[in-house]
Amino acid sequence: MGSADSKLNFRKAVIQLTTKTQPVEATDDAFWDQFWADTATSVQDVFALVPAAEIRAVREESPSNLATLCYKAVEKLVQGAESGCHSEKEKQIVLNCSRLLTRVLPYIFEDPDWRGFFWSTVPGAGRAGQGEGDDENARPLAESLLLAVADLLFCPDFTVQSHRRSTVDSAEDVHSLDSCEYIWEAGVGFAHSPQPNYIHDVNRMELLKLLLTCFSEAMYLPPAPDGGGTNPWVQFFCSTENRHALPLFTSLLNTVCAYDPVGYGIPYNHLLFSDYREPLVEEAAQVLIVTLDHDSATSTSPTVDGTTTGTAMDDTDPPGPENLFVNYLSRIHREEDFQFILKGIARLLSNPLLQTYLPNSTKKIQFHQELLVLFWKLCDFNKKFLFFVLKSSDVLDILVPILYFLNDARADHSRVGLMHIGVFILLLLSGERNFGVRLNKPYSVRVPMDIPVFTGTHADLLIVVFHKIITSGHQRLQPLFDCLLTIVVNVSPYLKSLSMVAANKLLHLLEAFSTTWFLFSAAQNHHLVFFLLEAFNNIIQYQFDGNSNLVYAIIRKRSVFHQLANLPTDPPAIHKALQRRRRAPEPLSRTGSQEGASMEGSHPAAPAEPGTLKTSLVATPGIDKLTEKSQVSEDGTLRSLEPTSQQSSADSSPATEEPDQAWREQRRLSSVSASGQWNPTSEWVLSWKSKLPLQTIMRLLQVLVPQVEKICIDKGLTDESEILRFLQHGTLVGLLPVPHPILIRKYQANSGTAMWFRTYMWGVIYLRNVDPPVWYDTDVKLFEIQRV
Questions:
Q1: What global pTM score does this model have?
Q2: For the chain, domain boundaries
Q3: In what ranges is there compositional bias, type Low complexity (predicted)?
């Protein structure tokens, strides 16, 4: 039958379904088979031939027909899984049912009255193959659907290579088949890489799209303040009920991490061969991150059926959460597995960067946001992986792409989510000492980026990019400033030698943040000054010797520190400063920052094209909720400084005893007027001004400024190099206050970030699935779709 005919017949069946007001019996196979038996429709055809308005009409006007359609389609999938799909006809039926369910499910989810439908049992539908219609052991439709999809993903000659040598051999029995022998790709826990098979990849992709659609019920529930409950579809699919959980988890992970878009190492190869693997890899990455959507903050780790699960994973740890995908991810422990995962993710994240200096040499991938979520989950759920990442300079292969994305997206309103996840990952990494140490590696890769040219280390690159984000990003990024500067503070004690460019950038930020109108214009702005002072103190106390550039920059800009020490606190001065603010709308001036030429071959960060779609995000928790403070002891171990442990205030030095009380006080001391306008008071300014950690820097200036001035007078110098040479050999041993303990703010999991990740992840998936547009124009509740 020609495909034009089959489309026509399929369309006729759809019209019949929408116009029949009488319920059609489930036994009327002649009617129902029209939807899947004789048609050769692509998923795009199904979306075109089943319009949204008609699905909603059937849902409202003949609900029993929609229910029967879903039930019959699931029944066909179950039959296909039972039989093993040997004939072409059976395979076609499975694919058609899969496409039809992908089309219809979002319209079931958007209506609260229908939401329980898939979790109810269908009367008279016993377990397939039993036929007695014994309701006792009837499974909810959702469970039957999920188990059938899992079976079909390991179906020989349909989604995996058959292991039978001859066709005469009896077909592999789907029930006794050990799917661990059919893992899709070599990598974690599997050494054999099957022959690539285009047809199998396409079939897997269709089934994964259906799976993702099942999981997408989460999109139709509004964001819950406490992080929300678990997704019943994901919960069941990732439970011990699914006998393929381990091989499927491994197949998805390996498929993503083994993918090489370069075209098998030959530049420009992708122009000759169409790459059918990429859509599968994307789908696999999306399904993987959704199955790993698990709130680690609220979950205690229950055992699986009260016992530990014996897997190819590490069994020394206590049993992990019931979600087996999270459980398996957290138990990966072999070095070679970590290496495979890290190399794979780094290779894919670097792909857009390769584009910039060898245009079109490789296929450009688009799923870097999914990869960042996956990397985040790996680090969050598997601490051994996090330590492995930081053990060598391989972490820089993740850092550089993240900085590239942050710099590239800083002017684009539609990519605020990407900015957040990049910063969150760096915050997580910065809580570990090794990250700061790794940053000292010289930066030689010349990825064209719209930043000033500099010679230096990866620390310089990080500081220069952060400065660019703060001074030339858009307003919606302001909530991230605390995070960016917290990262700088966390790494500062380990930075051996900042370049002059980076040192000037840090001082320019201090200058911009310590203007009176900026300090007085919002309740939290002074935190930024505290962070910068803390970073300077760490470098002066712990890395003075190699940091003559920073010391010189501090001496040159000494007036900024004197102004801070003499900050006016009387009401008229505060009033005057705020008047100035009304005239100066720009949050930060770029003057005095000596921008310098950008790197060759770079393009300025572009705003979003007008009309670009974006999804809204929930607010992220403040830095005090995002992190917990720890103190680094002499031996390098961390000790939590959270208020839970009652310590005496004598325990910490003035510099670390940050203005915490002041920050709690400030709401009490300052008045918020009826209009909601922030009104700083003298008491409020005094409450934190007295805690500014200026002692170390003031002492440094007191000792060095007269010496530097003397050199200039004696030698009539205007040349920096002589002064820098003097500072390089200078020492402040015994002249500075006693070094304060190093304070690290480590990321801590909390339900606020869990909810943020959920909305971000589903927003990305919503926007990236445009062909077919699975969720487009349905009534999603988790986020709003906005146009830039």
A1: 0.88
A2: 1-123+139-155
A3: 297-313
